[in-house]
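Please decode residue identities from the backbone states below.
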């Protein structure tokens, strides 16, 4: 399925350890924000940003592709059936700029939704998911593991996320949901070689990109 997304819905602070590392409170309901389709960049294009905006942090996340429309769905199992594929993605964040915006009480879009702020690996059929609470992944920078994700540690599990999101946003085929990042986020530097690994049901899926 190659339908482009109408939106990319991101979930903030969905791992308690990540919320703590940034000094944020653990939320009592999902923290949602949106990246536009214009934020997408291909893996082979590499990562770049305007350094005048300060540092750019990586945030590796399990990402879901919606293949069937959902609107106002409250049944968790029906919501899960709308997911057709999974992958890993990078929610790139201009952290210095985000901190400035937070202090002013302003929205985060400049720091989260800029052109090139979202990178998605190849989609993997949902049949690779044995159980939604048993998906694991890791993220490496220059062959050093920096992040390890495990959906059993999510504050809001995948099914609950889909239901909660769908009460706010209708979901169309092609839409993407980024489910949150584990601890270990940090600034990227020029020349970094990045590796994302998703542990599927039958095999590991590995993708590489770089900071140019």
């Amino acid at each position: 399925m190659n339908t482009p997304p109408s939106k990319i819905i991101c979930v903030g602070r969905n791992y308690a350890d990540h919320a703590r590392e940034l000094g944020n409170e653990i939320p009592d309901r999902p923290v949602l924000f949106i990246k536009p389709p214009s934020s997408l960049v291909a893996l082979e294009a590499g990562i770049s940003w305007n350094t005048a905006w300060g540092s750019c942090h990586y945030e590796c996340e399990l990402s879901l592709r919606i293949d069937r429309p959902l609107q106002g769905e409250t049944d968790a199992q029906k919501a899960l059936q709308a997911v057709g594929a999974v992958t890993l993605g990078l929610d790139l964040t201009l952290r210095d700029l985000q901190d400035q915006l937070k202090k002013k009480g302003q929205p985060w879009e400049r720091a989260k939704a800029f052109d090139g702020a979202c990178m998605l690996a190849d989609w993997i059929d949902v049949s690779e998911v044995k159980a939604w609470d048993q998906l694991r992944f890791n993220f490496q920078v220059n062959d050093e593991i920096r992040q390890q994700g495990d959906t059993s540690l999510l504050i809001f599990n995948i099914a609950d996320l889909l239901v909660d999101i769908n009460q706010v946003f209708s979901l169309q085929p092609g839409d993407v949901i980024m489910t949150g990042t584990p601890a270990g986020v940090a600034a990227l530097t020029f020349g970094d070689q990045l590796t994302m690994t998703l542990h599927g049901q039958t095999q590991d899926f590995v993708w590489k990109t770089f900071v140019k």
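Observation: The first strand starts at residue 8 and ends at 12.
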